[in-house]
Amino acid sequence: MFHLIKKTKKIVIVIIIIFVLFPLKKSYAQGFSWSGMIELSFRDRIEKGKAGDYETKTEQKTFQQRYFLNLSGPIFDPRIAIFSIGTTFTHTWDELNNADSNTKDYGYNIATTFFPQRFFPLTLYTNRFESDTDSSIFASRKTTTTGYGLRWSLMLRSLPTIRLLMEQTETVSDDLQQKKDEVKKEASLELNKVTSASVFFARYRYENLLDKIGNSTSDMHGVDMNYGSQLTRILHLRTFGSYDTTTTTTTSSRGDKDNINAGIGFYFHPTVYLDLTTDYNFYYTDDESYSAGVLRGTTSTRHLSSTTLYFHPDPRFDTRLGYYYSKSISSTDVDNHQINLNILGRPIVGLNLMGDAAYLENRSTSETNILSSSSQNYGAGYSYTLPYKNLTFNSSYRFDYGLVDVEPGEDGFNTTHTAGAGIAYNLSIALITTDYQFLSRRESRADADDRDEHRYKLGLASYYIRGLAAIANFEYDHLLQRKNNEPWTENELIIFESRLDYNIWRGLFFSGGYSLYNYSNPASNDTETLYTEGRIVFFPISNLFATVKIREEWIRYSLNPTKNILLGEARLDYRIRKLLLSAEYSYSLETQGAMETTKNMAFFKVTRVF
Q1: Residue 419 above 70 pLDDT?
Q2: Smallest Cα–Cα separation from 415: which of 448, 437, 373, 455?
Q3: Are strands 351-365 and 180-194 parallel, antiparallel or unpaired?
Q4: Among candidates 144, 223, 224, 219, which has minimal Cα distance to 184?
Q5: What's the mean pLDDT in 483-497?
Q6: Span between the terminal Cα atoms of the chain, in Å
Q7: Is 198 in contact with 207 (CB distance < 8 Å)?
Q8: Is 46 helix (H, G, I), strand (E, B) or coil?
């Protein structure tokens, strides 16, 4: 109790300091700006379950109050210094089945910036936040975080912009499951220079973490660099590099970890119809640990490179050729090579001709095993869209052929045909769509499936006519599947969805819908759903918004008992200048077989901003 009073006094002192500044002379006080918020909310949720003679009940009540206040302004003269003081307080009381818990989160932050309008502004700041939790079912928990630091910038036109950051954060927690008493120190120094032809960025990072409970210390030093430049009118360069080393020590062990990342890339644009991009990235990690007189270490290296040639001599013709390579070296070495070729032509409006080819080679080598595989894929196709008055026709076709070579394993090939066609008819009252999709795939390998799939779709979407609108969709899927020369397995799926919306009068709406999912496989769960819904949105008086919704659903399953859901919701929002009052109530009743579940929820909130 004494500690709580002491911490409450600290918050009160900060608030008093803020308000003491207001009685100053008018000319000085006009430079201040302040903001704040008060929010009170209450939620009551009751859930009851019943299955035969067995009944359950869960009741949860939550009350929360939140306060925020911030003041900022100049110190004598805004050219000399400006300050910002803020404080927050949140209290959450929660009761769950007669088990209480109280959580208080509070703290403050203070910042002062000297010479904010000059080229060398300096900001000093400090903050402290605490969280106390008391509960009737577990031990009390308290977490305190205190931090302070500085930010300094030097901005001169002739020199790179310099930014310095230094910060220390201390966290203490007496949670029995995760106790914490650690001090974290961070620092960084940045250099940034931007010109019309180049961008340069460099940064030094330092981090020290002291864990007093685990008796461990971690030190990290890092350097980052990025540079981009337009070497000539047609040649651009970009590079990056980073290095960091981390040392972790405890009373009985020591660990060192080094990371190196570097990369370089070129963008070559000799003509308006030719682009060449190439990149190379390198990653290196060295991890060593020393414990109980034993030294253990792992090293991993990764190389990534890519080259892409983009050729577009005509707006109707595009070609892209790319080569990608990656190599990982560790306990298992992995090499990947990939070549892609993509061609797209648009000879006339609405017609797209496409073709592509790809080659992929993968090799994995370890001390005991060597695995390699390669694949080739070739494809070609077209898509065509033709609008004619209120009609739009579309069609497409694509053929793919692939070769697979696996060692050790089974080689093989595959072919795939994909086709589609559809019509959209736009009437003045509705949009009617039809679509057909076909896929046929054949595999020569024993572990892959052959499949034929047909999909038919029919859709109707009407526009609002005198407040009435309707949507209906029908889909039929037919799938044939087999492995090797086994008999075909047939599966069918019928989907039907419909919805009706009727705006009876102004904000009064009525909706209804029906959906069906019917499977030919007896192991699948067929579903049939029917629902009705009524909702009203109205403004009884100025600044008052209200909405009410009632919905009922009937769901029939082929493998489960029928489910019935009744939902009711009501919401009210009333604004008086900067005061907002909100209230919400919801009710649901769900029955399925012998099970019945009832949920009630009431919520109130008052918010006042300043």
Answers
A1: yes
A2: 448
A3: unpaired
A4: 219
A5: 90
A6: 32
A7: no
A8: strand
